[in-house]
Design goal:
homodimer, 15 helices, 22 strands, disordered N terminus
Chain lengths: 517, 517
Amino acid sequence: MNNNNSGWLKTVSLPSPTLQNNTADADRLIRALKTRLNTDAIDIDLDLLRRLPDLIRKSNYTVRCLLFKDRQRWLIVNVTHSQENNSIVGLAVDLGTTKVVGRLLNLSTGQIIADSSFDNPQLSIGPDILTRIHFADQEGGLERLNKLIIQGLNSMIAELCRSCKLATDDIYLLSIAGNTAMTHLFMGLNPHWLIREPYIPVTNRPGLVKAVELGIKANPLARAMIFPNVGSYFGGDLIAGILFSGLNRNEDTAILVDVGTNAEVVIGNKKWLIACAGAAGPALEGGVTRMGMMAGPGVINKVAIDPADYQFTFQTIGGLPPKGICGSGLIDLAASFFLSGMIDIRGKLVPSQCGRRLTEKDGIQHIIVVPASESGTGTDLTISQADLDSLIRSKAAMYTIIATITSSVGIAPKDLATFYVAGTFGTYINPESAISIGMLPDLPQDSYKPLGNSSLGGATMALRSYEFLEEIDNIRDTITYIELNVNQEFMNRFSAAKFLPHTDPTLFPSVKVWSKQ
Amino acid sequence: MNNNNSGWLKTVSLPSPTLQNNTADADRLIRALKTRLNTDAIDIDLDLLRRLPDLIRKSNYTVRCLLFKDRQRWLIVNVTHSQENNSIVGLAVDLGTTKVVGRLLNLSTGQIIADSSFDNPQLSIGPDILTRIHFADQEGGLERLNKLIIQGLNSMIAELCRSCKLATDDIYLLSIAGNTAMTHLFMGLNPHWLIREPYIPVTNRPGLVKAVELGIKANPLARAMIFPNVGSYFGGDLIAGILFSGLNRNEDTAILVDVGTNAEVVIGNKKWLIACAGAAGPALEGGVTRMGMMAGPGVINKVAIDPADYQFTFQTIGGLPPKGICGSGLIDLAASFFLSGMIDIRGKLVPSQCGRRLTEKDGIQHIIVVPASESGTGTDLTISQADLDSLIRSKAAMYTIIATITSSVGIAPKDLATFYVAGTFGTYINPESAISIGMLPDLPQDSYKPLGNSSLGGATMALRSYEFLEEIDNIRDTITYIELNVNQEFMNRFSAAKFLPHTDPTLFPSVKVWSKQ
């Protein structure tokens, strides 16, 4: 494939007009592109029409067109001289509740130029979506939230372009993947009904929108493709994640798990996709244990306990003195406690096995993970029985959701070909630890595939080929979203999953406790 | 048909959302409309999305939608409460080089509310299109021309709405029919190449454009449908005229003639349409005879000569004292001169038959049409031999064009079922006179159908039904535009047509000279 003609850029030579062939400039161009793209529907904007006649004559009827696609319709976004070397850049955005990540890529080669991220400025209104949606109900609230995110994006765009020696005008296409609420706030759509039964978004398919209409400072002709959603609780970020994982292209049934406060789960293959979301509990994010925090510099993300001497070894992000522990570290820790016999199958501390690490604060038992002398905070980093209980509820919820969704399609968790784990959690988690505590099913370790920022990954793909745009629509239309029915069966599963690794150890044949107890 | 659901307005009841049916607001609405309109492509704008959730809940899921169509795609222009009685108004515009006419109509009933017109403010740049196109080449010239017409339209819209007790915001749809050059100036498109071989417009199909993008002050959601063109010399005004005449719906072959400085001619039926344009000479508009002028108050538009006493009787527009004579009056006059023997079959004055009416000014023979004592100018209104020669060239050109185009499709002028005559010319012309001088073919008088402002008529129809929008596209795609080949055969025809009524009197059996000569 000629780079100049890959993806969205097509160089076409038009027949020169004559008295016998006096078709108008735009119609001549569209006719050539229709043949090239084998389509019947190509649109062009007034802005571009106004520049077209000079442009096609100056380039002697051979022009380079930047096209984008919205469902069945192609749109001519820009037309330049065929020899012009101006950068044609796209921006993929993962529009997170907490963090927003942008990625510039070269639209003619598909190559990534640079990534950048910033804290969602809406955090100043509220850390969680619920607070922001309530704030949006106030007079001017939605406008304020919308302005915060748009200004934040515009600052990032300006900075990113400056650092890459590009102009913001070089950005012609954007793709935006966010959860349904963030997408609403980004578009200035009223999010009020998203959180009220029966949880109705304003739109499931925002489609292609002019960047200027959104207030985004890119090229005036730029278009933004906003990922569709399946509902209030299953947003474009997850559809981008599915696209990125390839779940929807697999012959074999696989599962994708995205864990935050909610665990979002998709199971399926190229023929079908079933999704559900459930509260996984907050143990896996910051805020619960006094030392629990999100992944970041100085946060413990890996822990091991030596079976020989019960010595703790840990790894922190950036190798800094430990300041806290994130979800994946917590899981490692719980797994080590369990395998070493420091906690029993109910997750309760076994004082005889904890030794000098056991301490008591305010009448509650704690295990000292990092003594004050080694910590980055100057105080002991500890884990309490309550923290462990909370983690166990989360891991039980996680496993129950997986068991329920697999059971609903008539397969066992162990029959899953691939287990995709999205996000930061997926990047840092040690599957062996998660299996040890019965959080994830006992699959061969190489079945686990961390995806990293799959939302950004999917948004990037959307800027690489129109085939992916079609796939996005197909994913959206294929997904069956099921409400988790919290009935007696679910509760039974949940109770069984609250043990380590489970009441039925045959589900976890690989888990071997090494405590000599 | 329920008025509320006629044309562009559709009232739909949406199923209320439930946990089992949690489709988004916009998608729910679009789904209902897709079923109703039996289509697969319905779009909605961001502006409207932002207002949608409140709107559909306040109207309890029964809403009135205003839709418009652009080729295969429907667009939701506005959504209101089903019981809302706000006026929904459309504006049809005949975008003339000299005069612009606007017409407000009620989009729910299709009824005309009011018409208004104004002189095209671009007249201050130049009376003709050519001057304006050259002006557009100057720095800022196109912007100035564009601003003039847009401001003129906005003033008319404001005034028209005020006089009808409507708000400009009540206007949601516009349809604009103008010649190709005026359409370019209206859209701010470069007209430079329209007048340079091979005469290429910027676009043949402007389609649907947001009124705000054009600078038009109507409802912010309003859309303008701009008539397509076949080329530089066959514009949207003529396509509107064809639509209005119904030429394209007839079984029998008919002809449509629009006479200005150019004569534009379309011949065809429901199966085919062939068009051409030729210089008809300026005799039929103002500027040639010293008394020749455009139709307007005090202008003679009908003349007769009494065979008994050779007395002239005339009729002026508005019944005012005569100030000049327009094309239709000139034709009447020439016919009367000829039938009474005052001019011969070459169109030369016959002094013996002219009597006291003959006079000489600056060495040239004139006939006094209105003596100074009866005229509105205080001077004699006269016609010179030169004026008559000029008229005869025009009438010969007209007949030659008709004879050439009918011959090109293998029929004789007398076989035409209907002869549509557009514009002011068509309104005032007396077919009997035009036949007498051999300008129009000798068809039964009731074959001649004056159309009045057919451009405005077609623009009005475009706002009444999407079936007409489809017809407009079909007309455009069906027309074969032929260049009049001025070869020897054409010149022979022209020479023969320079006689009154023709060298071959069998072509005009109804024409009987009553002069006793």
